[in-house]
Design a protein that fits this description.
The structure is a homodimer of 426-residue chains. Chain A is α/β, with parallel strands linked by helices. Chain A has 2 domains: 142 residues, 3-Layer(bba) Sandwich (FAD/NAD(P)-binding domain), CATH 3.50.50.60; 213 residues, FAD/NAD(P)-binding domain (3-Layer(bba) Sandwich), CATH 3.50.50. In chain A, helix 1 packs parallel to helix 9 and helix 4 runs antiparallel to helix 5. The longest helix of chain A is centred in the first third of the chain and has 20 residues. At the A-B interface, strand 4, strand 5, helix 4, helix 11 and helix 12 of A face strand 4, strand 5, helix 4, helix 11 and helix 12 of B.
Chain lengths: 426, 426
Amino acid sequence: MPHRVVVVGGGFAGLNLVRALRRAPVDVTLIDRRNFHVFQPLLYQVATGGLSPGDIAAALRWVLRRQANARVLLGEVTAVDAAQRLVRLGDGDAVPFDTLVVATGAANHYFGRSEWAPLAPALKTVEDATEIRSRILAAFERAERAVEPAQRHGALTFLVVGAGPTGVELAGAIGELAGHTLRREFRAFDPRAARVLMVEGGPRVLPTFPERLSRAAARSLARLGVEVLTDAFVTEIRPGAVRVRASQGETTIPADTVLWAAGVRASPLGAVLAATTGADLDRSGRVMVGPDLAVPGHADVFVIGDLAHVLDEAGNPLPGLAPVAMQQGRYVAKRIRRRLAGRDLPAFRYHNKGQLATIGRAAAVADLGWLRFSGFPAWALWLFLHLMYLVGFENRLLVFTQWAWNYFTWNRGTRLIAHAEKTLGG
Amino acid sequence: MPHRVVVVGGGFAGLNLVRALRRAPVDVTLIDRRNFHVFQPLLYQVATGGLSPGDIAAALRWVLRRQANARVLLGEVTAVDAAQRLVRLGDGDAVPFDTLVVATGAANHYFGRSEWAPLAPALKTVEDATEIRSRILAAFERAERAVEPAQRHGALTFLVVGAGPTGVELAGAIGELAGHTLRREFRAFDPRAARVLMVEGGPRVLPTFPERLSRAAARSLARLGVEVLTDAFVTEIRPGAVRVRASQGETTIPADTVLWAAGVRASPLGAVLAATTGADLDRSGRVMVGPDLAVPGHADVFVIGDLAHVLDEAGNPLPGLAPVAMQQGRYVAKRIRRRLAGRDLPAFRYHNKGQLATIGRAAAVADLGWLRFSGFPAWALWLFLHLMYLVGFENRLLVFTQWAWNYFTWNRGTRLIAHAEKTLGG
């Protein structure tokens, strides 16, 4: 019987691992709760009406249809037994493994204030994205029907918590919606009156980027009408209002729509794995793995992607980015192939090709390490890379078509409010 | 103050009416529960993974953005006061009118068995379509994980109730999914083992078409592996099983996925309107209107589209089809313009250009009255007309791209199971 590799999670890490094993003498089982892979970096475009969920998703079975040594199981892994070498699914089924790779990523984290989750949705799944899209568009609809100025003011205030790449992308896109896309569409108010605020705990937007690029991003945000509050913390979220503490003191900001882009926490499977293997978790719940990405003492149990705590050469933990996850997936695949051939592989090393963030139309920042730039060239690079890495040629074609269309018309064509009856109240 | 026209419902009837009033000296208010128009004839393609909801939806505000005399209100009309000349929204707001046009269409109808609705979803809204898509795809996923043959057999049986155009389109598309699209994607079974059944109360499929075309459609369905039970009635639906009474007696068919395409009933606003105007309703709850499409005794209150009961020259009620709704919308717009100019307009007359239904790839039937044909030419005509009538150039481009792609690859790219955790059970 061939060596059985079980992979949990079909994100960037897991899917790249499975594909890199296509010619290996192994049986691969990919287990995911969802039947599709999501291209997470474009989720914010679904949340702001630019793309459909289907454009950035690819059915896992379809991606792996020609890989005869791989099968896909739809299910949720709830337990891992490292001694018996099997994982258990929610419905009780057990799947045995010779090598296990856990790549279940991260979920949103409200720093102990989980009651904020329904008031300030975060952007991790396609359901999150369509929910956020509905809230943003429904807020403009309420503004059209508002009688009191205060009611309209609250409806037209959008507050994004966190100024990392996701927060900046969301705030920039809402700024564009209000300033351009919706311009002619309302009769009772001018959408340009909308206020988009970002609240960031640190001293600048895009804190992981060099300071010069943070300043460029802040200028692009200002051009889109986005106000940034730095060194500021959200202390309370209530329906219709957010309390913010900044250096000048604490204030209450009336805002109907609050979006959370402030923190992530490792998937709960990390703790499950720690319990059975004795692995350590870091403060965010990520599993501390060795330089071979295996759990210490368990050479056949790997953790990759956002769930793994891995240090770079300087001793800093690697960030939760798609390139890290993809490289780790390919590394572990290679490690498995080598081991089956009785050979070893040097420790994992992340080849940092840089980081990118987009703020809006023709505005982005790129930090390639050896070269740092912003504006149109950074945006063009961003477009090119995102189209290139998108899974599935049809998705690339559809996204390209819509981007071209959106660029020339300023429109965003995917503006469905789900279950409007509920969203509107009344 | 200009003449105030209030239109309730932004489907084919309402939207065509509003656009036909663009140069009229009136103020138009379009009220809809949803912020978008849906191109209903393609909903079945969303339900079977071929298109995204955004591809067949257009934001009402966007469609009307350049029409200065029109505004859009997102809201649900719950009451009509014909004497006071106003409609009331769910949240208590009142909107006054000089002329009222009600075009809220039809909803699904389970012939008094509303407890069947959750067991056998019907296809009316985009939420219905994504729910049906999830159920169909999740059934194949359960088959992959099934241990017992009976369990797999139930998961792989799809039963469609009703063999009108929607039922035929759904059954044909499921047949294609099983027979072609999913062919290489499962490891534990061959998707071609799936069974697709249609249960039709009448003696043939597509009962509104000429007999010769019904036979052609039945042959196309048979080629896709769809079994048709005619003169058969569903007497009970339970989770996992359907009881069917046919001439040979009553049998229980194990089927996990049951889809309802058997009956529609007019929107409840018809009854609301009848109460305030004294109008009569037909058996399906449609409002009986005069030859001018106005409610008898209320020359300023019109009902159009699927909610209206209108007789053709032969004395038969007009069918609930998009061309009927569009022509009625344009007729009432003309009538309003004429009346404001002090002129009259002859009674509404439906120009029947024929009917079309598609069964699958290169298979359709067309009845143009003077010409009846099936197969590839009918399918090409179907494609052309549906692309042409789709609202929004971007939608046309996206749908065309996906159709071309799906045709050449046999793929259906939009295969997301929503909330898979729940769908799977366990």
